[in-house]
Design brief:
Helix content is 17%, strand content 30%. By secondary structure, it is of the alpha/beta class. The chain has a nine-stranded mixed beta sheet with strand order 1-13-11-5-7-9-10-4-12. Helix 3 links the parallel strand 9 and strand 10. Helix 2 (140-148) packs parallel to helix 3.
Length: 387
């Protein structure tokens, strides 16, 4: 089993958030003089890789020891946002493709989110330099999206989820508040900052492996935050199950069967990317060989690239999605393939003058597990709802 260390080492004089207590580590006892080695530690509660409790930004909100331990461990959902400019905002559109957090426990019973969200900013490479202060940060809409998707733990390889430097594109609010902290913490979400090594998690996920993350803080009663030893491990692949045989153009003859949750997550990501007009995330959800039948189009589209060309033409004319609501969802599992159907109500801007159009349609999407283990759409059929 492969383990990943996601924590920065605690050292005297290490970087801290501006104004926080400095870290001081020194010898207190020695074997030679006292019969044992003991270190003296002096630091703030937010030193190094650490977890923020809701109490950090709200008096009366939960301290770390008041939160269930299950919040501090889960399967990683990682987003590569290394393309966001240093000091720039991470927007809701850039996070639109994240899967819902899901829940542990049995249906109908209380549980906790099954996933932990990790934001890979790439800022860990600047640790120990002034550039580390110029990191991407969550705008209010992005923080709210994370909460709305059910996450109650979010971590990033940066100093804060809010701006830390006057060089940030929008800077800190004039009143000195921390909007992203307030939204996340106000909804019971723990925040983990100063992670490192997230490229290890990302590579494992891209290779098709699930990764389990552990973010357990020191047990300090009433703490607003505490250092953690953040670690992760690559989970073994589930045991292969025979799947129904389908044409080889779609999948191998034997491949791991899809679960209902996997299909739901894939559909949610697809709908969210479409709703955000997030071109890259949207088309990443389709197989290159995917086919499309859309009732407003005279001919079917025989590939992802054909649909992308049509989409790009729409965008050039000022088209974009303003709202997309999915309802009446149904999932039919067929081994390594699944049929997802739903009713979709959409409002779009159709031109640069702000013209709008609304539609009420039925959609059927065929999902299949790709050879690399990912789940992709291989066929989409859109029909108008009967009047």
């Amino acid at each position: 089993m492969t383990w990943f260390d996601l924590s920065v080492p605690l050292r005297t004089g290490m970087p801290v958030y501006p104004g926080d207590p400095e870290v001081r580590i020194a010898s207190a006892l020695t074997v030679e003089a006292d019969g044992a080695n003991v270190l003296s530690l002096a630091m703030g509660s937010h030193s190094g890789t650490h977890a923020d409790a809701p109490l950090h930004v709200g008096d009366g909100w939960a301290a770390l020891d008041e939160l269930p331990l299950s919040l501090f461990g889960g399967v990683a959902e990682i987003v590569d946002i290394r393309g966001v400019a240093r000091g720039g905002a991470i927007t809701a559109a850039q996070l639109a493709g994240i899967a819902p957090a899901g829940m542990t426990g049995n249906p109908g019973e209380p549980g906790n989110p099954a996933r932990i969200l990790l934001l890979h900013t790439g800022c860990a490479a600047a640790w120990g330099t002034d550039e580390y202060l110029k990191h991407p940060w969550l705008d209010a809409a992005a923080a709210q999206l994370i909460v709305d998707r059910g996450y109650r733990a979010v971590g990033l390889d940066a100093l804060s989820v809010d701006p830390s430097s006057p060089g940030a594109s929008d800077g800190k609010p004039a009143d000195g508040s921390f909007p992203a902290h307030a939204i996340l913490a106000g909804n019971g979400c723990i925040i983990v900052e100063n992670l490192t090594g997230l490229e290890q998690v990302q590579r494992a996920r891209e290779a098709g492996s699930d990764v389990e993350v552990f973010l357990f803080p020191l047990n300090i009663p009433g703490a607003d935050g505490a250092p953690i030893r953040a670690v992760a491990r690559r989970l073994p692949a589930p045991e292969l199950q025979p799947a129904v045989l389908y044409p080889t153009a779609l999948q191998p003859t034997v491949i791991r069967a899809l679960s209902r949750q996997e299909v739901q997550d894939a559909a949610d990501r697809l709908v969210a990317a479409f709703a955000a007009t997030d071109t890259e995330a949207y088309f990443a959800a389709f197989s290159p060989q995917a086919t499309f039948i859309f009732h407003p189009e005279a001919q079917s589209l025989g590939s992802r690239s054909a649909y992308r060309a049509l989409w790009d033409n729409w965008l050039a004319g000022g088209w974009r999605v303003l709202e997309c609501r999915s309802s009446e969802q149904d999932i039919q599992l067929l081994g390594a393939t699944a049929v997802f159907s739903h009713r979709v109500a959409t409002t779009v801007q159709i031109d640069r003058e702000g013209g709008r159009d609304t539609s009420d349609e039925r959609e059927t999407i065929i999902f299949s597990r790709a050879p690399d283990g990912s789940i992709v759409c291989v066929h989409e059929h859109l029909s108008a709802c009967p009047q």
